[in-house]
Amino acid sequence: MTLAERVMKEVAKVFVGKNDIIRKVMLALLAQGHVLLEDRPGVGKTTLALAMSKAIRAEYRRIQFTPDVMPSDITGFSMYDKERGEWNYERGAILCNLFLADEINRASSRTQAALLEAMEEGRVTVDGIAHEIPKPFMVIATQNPVGSAGTQLLPESQMDRFMVCLSIGYPSPADEVDMLQRKRGRNPMDSVEAVASGEDVLAMRLDVETIYVHQEIDEYIVRLVSATRDNSFIRLGASPRASVAVARLAQASAFLRGRDYVLPDDVLEVFPDCITHRLLLSPKAKAEHCSPEDVIRTILENTRPPRLH
Predict the structure, then answer these.
(1) Rounded to whole angstroms, what are the CA distances from 67 to 38, 39, 76?
(2) What does the record list as coiled-coil region(s) (predicted)?
(3) Around Cβ 295, how many Cβ atoms within 10 Å?
(4) pTM for the structure as a whole
(5) β-pair type (35-38, 86-91)
(6) What is the chain's alpha carbon radius of gyration, rounded to the nearest angstrom?
């Protein structure tokens, strides 16, 4: 069993019956991306993030986003020390390895924007001074479905920063029974062991970067992404950042499958979760009750993958 598989096995001890979601979060971690979990409350979004942080022995911090959360709560702030006559930087919550932004779409636009530099650059700037965020670094944000009390749409620029957007869904009845039995008389989170370290994650990320990607695979990815920009059902297609994200995730998929090269199947696995949340549908799509998933499915069916020899 590989180290990545051991990490996923530990998370599965408390996040029951959703091994596909655990795998996708692991793919994003290995591909140096961030994850947006969009679902109703109570389905295990926080449990997933906490278990992942324990399994990789990561410094974990969480903020419950509400309208009164300030940008300085995220980035930190400067405080004047009268005795020393100097300004000291008070660390913000974002300076950790795994940051959980819980119910991000309840916060103000200013507070949401405070995450952007950290997610993209791996640092925060306070009073003109940049502060590096420890590595490895990953943001897992959760949001309730739009239309829930107190929620608002995330801007397109912030949605584009998330490498994947996942929906957990309810567990099956059998898995829910299993969950109840595991919780009875003990905290299942106590059973999650730290089987990896931050250094291990950084080493796996370096291995992922060495996975070979044939030029025809890159051209295939670009054709798929370009198809979102020239589609009557899509008003705003995926950006070049999306192409980079798909390529990195495909490398991570090949790594988890034990290969040192990417195949079209790797691209097919990661493309929907990487692209769907970046699209804005046109009025035509809404009139015909066409979802982003439907559009992505059609694009994948109509774009021929390369035949590598």
Answers:
(1) 19, 20, 18
(2) none
(3) 22
(4) 0.91
(5) unpaired
(6) 20
The dihedral built from the CA positions of residue 63, 66, 67 and 68, taken in this order, carries a sign that is negative
Residue 182 tokens, joined: 């595991």
Where in the chain are all domains bearing CATH 3.40.50.300? 3-198
The position carrying tokens 């992942």 is 52
Architecture of domain 3-198 in this structure: 3-Layer(aba) Sandwich (3.40)
Kindly state the tokens that stand for 302: 């109509």
**How far apart are the two ends of the chain, measured CA to CA in Å?**
29
- Enumerate the CATH 1.10.8.80 domain ranges in the chain, comma separated: 210-302
- Beta carbons of 107 and 69 less than 8 angstroms apart: yes
SS3 185: coil
Distance CA 3, CA 198 (A): 12
| Cα 171 from chain centre | 21
CA distance 32 to 201: 10
- 77, with CB counted inside 10 A (0-12, 13-18, 19+), is middle
- Residue whose structure tokens are 């502060």: 131
**CA 230/CA 226 separation, integer angstroms:** 7
Confidence of residue 118 (pLDDT cuts 50, 70, 90): confident
Give residue-wise pLDDT tens across range 152-206: 677 777 888 899 999 888 888 888 888 888 877 778 888 899 999 999 999 999 9
Dist CA 134 CA 96 (whole Å)? 6
CATH class of 210-302: mainly alpha
Give the length of the chain: 309
Q: Which letter, b or e, does each residue of 178-216 get, where b requires 16 or more Cβ atoms within 10 Å of its Cβ?
A: ebeeeeeeeebeeebeebbebebbeebbeebeebebeee
Helix (H, G, I), strand (E, B) or coil at 98: strand
